[in-house]
Amino acid sequence: MAKDKSKAGKSSKPSASSKLQEFSGFKVLPVHMNRGTIHYLYMKKHESRVDSTATPKDRTLFLLNLPTDTTEAHLKKLFKPYARIVNVKYHTRGQQQAGEDDDDDDDEEDTNAEEEEDQIVLTKRQKKMKNAEEAKKKESDPSNKIRQLLTTGSYAHVVVLDTKELDNLLNMGAKRRDWNIEDEATLPLGFDRYRALYSLSHPSSTELQQRVDSFIIKFQAAEYEKERIAAEQQNKMDEDGFIMVTRHHRRGTNTDGTVTVTAAKSDRQVKPQKKKELVNFYRFQMREQKRDQLVELRKKFEVDRKKIEQLKQTLPILPRWYAGHLSKKVRFERFPPYLIQLLARILYDTNIRAS
């Protein structure tokens, strides 16, 4: 009996220790990081009011408190003995706070999009070509060479292949699990990651030329497609009996054969507006105006004074009685003195010549 009790005690201990601990409805999954640190993941079955094909309830695991360097390869290696991962949808804390109420709408849109995609039946050859093109795009995409880091407290919806696999994940035993991947060197971290970012942000001239050429080819193809659609719709009557009037833009070709498009200029030319300045609005403007007027008066006075001096030097001095007699005879009160002197000189000369 004692032996049986000891056996029962030994068998009960591993069964209790093999289960994961629970906290507030979550299964606590510890993983061992670098330098002996332990990170705790929290997981449970996904629950939602609306069932979506993107995140089905019976095949989706809700995973909380992801490490910042989490990738799909990490999760596949972590859950490899228990489930096969189909898709992983990451969420950050900012998205959780801002878009918490829009989860149902997003799920409905995902279901509609996937239902439309399921209606399209592709042959095996078309599927192979499509998969090859997608793989080629992923290889050529430089962003795939850089690990996308998550924010602290991020979570994810992990979709597995079968409902039994989800139960296996929730009932997995407690043991040491390391957080690493085989191709860790291909997705660097730390200084190596920033160095890779710098090298990708400064591509070579040949790579830039290839990107520019591909962009120009796509742009020209889109322009030709627009022209073709516009030509088909020209003078075409719709269901209501109206004819759509379209406008043709002027296009030309350069010497190298490339197409140039001239922008349409507006008929109305906008004239530049003159600056409106207020005159004599401020006191300093009034002071400056008065000062300028005084300066102009002084200049004129100096000019008149110089003219009078020149007349005095050139003209002989007339008798006072003659100038006074002339001023009384002809009323020149409003004329300046040098004009009176000049007129008196002219009259004096004429009188002398006449005599």
UniProtKB/TrEMBL annotation:
Source species, domain of life: Eukaryota
Biased composition (Acidic residues): 99-119
The Rrp7 RRM-like N-terminal domain, residue ranges: 23-86
Biased composition (Low complexity): 9-19
Domain Ribosomal RNA-processing protein 7 C-terminal: 201-313
An example molecular function term from Gene Ontology annotations: nucleic acid binding
Region (Disordered): 1-21, 91-144
InterPro entries: Nucleotide-bd_a/b_plait_sf, RBD_domain_sf, RRM_Rrp7, RRP7, RRP7_C
Compositionally skewed regions (Basic and acidic residues) per UniProt: 130-144
GO cellular component, one term: CURI complex
One GO BP annotation of this record: ribosomal small subunit assembly
Similarity section: Belongs to the RRP7 family.
PANTHER family: RIBOSOMAL RNA PROCESSING PROTEIN 7-RELATED, RIBOSOMAL RNA-PROCESSING PROTEIN 7 HOMOLOG A-RELATED
Name of the protein described by the UniProt record: Ribosomal RNA-processing protein 7
Source organism phylogeny: Eukaryota, Fungi, Fungi incertae sedis, Mucoromycota, Mucoromycotina
